[in-house]
Input
Amino acid sequence: MTRTQEPTLLDPPASAAKRRKLFINNEWVDAASGKTFDAIAPSTGKVITQIAEGDAADIDRAVAAARAAFDGPWAKFTPTQRERVMHQFADKVEERWDELVATDSYDMGFPIGFGSVVAGGYGPHDILRYFAGWPSKIKGETLPNSAGEDLFSYTRREPIGVVGAITPWNAPRMGVVKMAPVLASGCTMVIKPSEVACLSSLIYEEIISELDLPPGVINIVPGGGRTAGAALAEHPGVNKLTFTGSTATGQSLVRASAGNLKRVTLELGGKSPDIIFADADLDAAILTAGMGVFGNSGQMCTAGSRIFVERSVYDEFVARVAELGKMLKVGNSLDPTTTIGPIVSQRQLDRVSSYLEAGVDAGAEIVTGGSRISDGDLAGGYFIPPTVFAGVTDDMKIAREEIFGPVASIMPFDDVDEVIRRANATSYGLVGGVWTRDIRKATAVSHALECGVVWVNTYNTFDPGVPFGGHKMSGWGSELSHHGLEGYLKVKAVWLNYA
Output
């Protein structure tokens, strides 16, 4: 099938073609092995450039640089100095925002026309500015004790040390979510961006080199998950690991981190329920729930891919979401009129396609979409149109497993208790959605859902001051807000004997 218009493509950023190196101790260096890997444009399947491929030897160098900075000049920065450098970082990110958006579009496939509204209308610079307010507010407590009148006790909140961060391919420029609390807390870090799409992550190398930061505070080492990623997770010089990605990889990283019992924050997968009651504003629910699974070609951990609809409005909802899917323009990610861009890679395309086949084999009905676009202007890229399955049962593979593609499974329900039970019948617990005009029902269902975030009459809404994180097998800990900052701090108790 095809659904194309004469493309009016924006030029990719000139910087995207630049051969990229590792960034260690404020220097651009080749990988110790000399290896590189290709960055591929998913809209065309063509090579963009080559990127140095880090492995264990490069992780060693980067961790050593981060440790030297942590023990040395960075430790002497006052809270005000950390705040100033973070605002400097935010200003430079904002100056290059258009380039970051265009690079993500070209390298990862996010439609360029939606670049300014990703993450609910805020960007990396806003995250940096939010966390820039925290260095002067990190504080301990004075504590009463019963050990003696000459004994004084208090606590300190101290940076945990060297942080290893592994960031995902579905939103490379949002790696600042992990950089910002590192800088605010006084930690240092080594970032391993995904090798699947990381060009916008590597623009940060240039920005960081211009900041008033000591060398080694932030190091960036792209490479494979089984080489560079595993080395970072296992490294005895890393005090904390923060990871965003699949649950299976998160489990392997937990095992790898056990050597020195490093702290771990995990933001993992989801199979999120979006629940639509008959009394909801259906116009809003159809558009928002539809884009909650079709947006970014479904390549979101928060994708509301299990849509439960009250039976009295089920048929109407299915028909209208399918019509929405047909209306959305699938196209090259650099076309400003594109709504749905490509799947990120051939490997991911094959994975999503296998789920489409599994749904049909299990007896689900494809209402729209359902197969790769294999002819016309988009044939060379990795495109799957918005797909709607009806006739889905809870035990089907497409209703149980994370697909990470623009695939909605829409299922009817009859009452509140039933939909809560079915929504919670999953090993995941990342996010959920509830659509109703009844505030009592909205509150009751929100409290009953076993997940870390619940959106009522909205979806995919974020703010740096509001925590984000999952329950069950969707993760450990939180990102954003003061809850996210806590993961980068350790508590020390101090006793003073005045006698």
Q: What stands out?
A: The domain at 273-463 is CATH 3.40.309.10 (Aldehyde Dehydrogenase; Chain A, domain 2). The chain has two domains: 14-268+474-494, 273-463. The longest helix spans residues 79-95. The two ends are 84 Å apart (CA to CA).
